[in-house]
Amino acid sequence: MDKENRKIKISPIRNGTVIDHIRKGQALKVVKILGIMKQDTDSVVSIAMNVDSSSGKKDIVKVEGRELLREELDKISLISPEVTVNIIDDYVVKAKHRVKLPGTIKGIVRCRNTTCITNQKEPVEPEFLVIHEKPVSIKCIYCERETKGEEISENLR
Ligand SMILES: [Zn+2]
Fold first, then answer.
1. 104-154 adopts what CATH topology?
2. Identical fold at 3-98 and 104-154?
3. CA 51 from centre of chain
4. Ligand 1 centroid – CA 154 distance (Å)
5. Nearest Cα to Cα of residue 63 among 83, 89, 45, 42
6. What is the pLDDT of residues 95-127, one digit of tens each?
7. Model pTM?
8. Which CATH architecture has domain 3-98?
9. Helix ranges restricted to H, 21-157
10. Rounded to the nearest whole angstrom, what is the distance from the C-alpha of residue 127 to the centroid of ligand 1?
11. Is the pLDDT of residue 46 over 50?
């Protein structure tokens, strides 16, 4: 692809959110987290993969017309902690920040341990402590089972 085409593909949006510096190959996971496949069909979403950046290749996802929810940001931080979120207002970047990995993860990841209390009939919400940031590793507060890397994205609820 030549440079001109690439420019068109990642053209600016008027209002919405640009999720930048997504780890290469993770864009579709971000799209899945945003629930775009199943709902929210009004939002226009553009995806750019394997984009050149100063630190190698990256993916970018743009969502028009809305900002992200706290839960979505937390999930994204788990699968791609280097992400920066740009809030766009009338073509101008109004705010720009890194996603921040929370200290505890509640309700958004399933425990991998099938005998864990959070996987039984009782309504116990899964909860994890973040024990390592790079790579991300989390530990269930009930059964202490660790979940890390790819396993986290596979167990997102
Ligand atoms: Zn557990």
1. SH3 type barrels. (2.30.30)
2. no
3. 17
4. 15
5. 45
6. 999 999 999 999 999 999 999 999 998 889 999
7. 0.84
8. 2-Layer Sandwich (3.30)
9. 27-33, 70-79, 150-154
10. 8
11. yes
